[in-house]
Amino acid sequence: MIRAIRSASPATDAAVIQRLLAVGLLAGLLAGLAVAALQNVTTTPLILAAEVYETAAEQAHAGGEAHQHEHAAEPAWEPAPGLQRTAATSVATSVTAVGYAFVLLALMLLSGETIEPKRAALWGACAFASTGLATSLGLAPELPGSAAGDLAARQLWWIGTAAATGAGLFAVLRVERPLVKALGAALILAPHLIGAPQPPAPESTAPAELAARFAAASLAIHAITWILVGAAVGFVWRHLSTKTSAEAAA
Amino acid sequence: MTTKTLSAAAILSASRLEILRAALVVFTLGAGLVYLAGFSYASVAHNAAHDSRHSLGFPCH
């Protein structure tokens, strides 16, 4: 009998994981492809425009000097301009959206939350506040050609800020004890007291007007991504729930 | 027709513990995908995801 329980458990685990993965994959792809289409007409044209300024600045800086050492190593694969680059961006955005869908679904289940479209979209809005608004306060969305601090340090600050803000929001919004709420507020504030890694000087090869438009567009895209991911997780979950009810009734 | 919301346990026909275990696995996978698309240092991942990273606010370059 013990053996029967032991052998049954991994099979159930795999089945549960499989269903969760199916929900996240479908929801993430729906949201990701919609966002990829939006990026194509919002942020990507601004990135391409900024690269024209970046390349011009690099060429002016290099002047007539020989800089063969930079090109000594075999250059890594990069997508060709046009369709291939658009496809690569769409794939990357979809991978991010599926990843976000898995994370959102897992966190909602871990906290015992009822999953339905409106509530999942609200979780998406809180996730945007964490990975989008809080991180932008220290590291504004940037165009190619803008000065920036050390990459690893920025990535660490970004991850820490997103995690601290998310945990802080959960404590403030979902825990009743005042002490926990206060700790949550402290968690939201802490990354900004520590401060994000900044470049020595706020320089950019792209015009300020372009950078400002990009920062606004990027935040809007970021918000749309999370809210669509949340709503899609809710809708796919509801579909699964309806199917289960129908099967149970049959 | 009933409009009662089914619990996650009913929908997945699994115990609470099984759901928590599965959620942890799915969370780890999700974090891995976000790392690959948004943070990985591998040149191919960076070059393919370049415009997406800038657009979605990940630190880049």
From TrEMBL, chain B:
The chain crosses the membrane at residues 26-44. It holds the Pfam family CbtB. The keyword Transmembrane applies. Keywords: Membrane, Transmembrane, Transmembrane helix. It comes from the Bacteria. This is CbtB-domain containing protein. It comes from Methylosinus sporium.
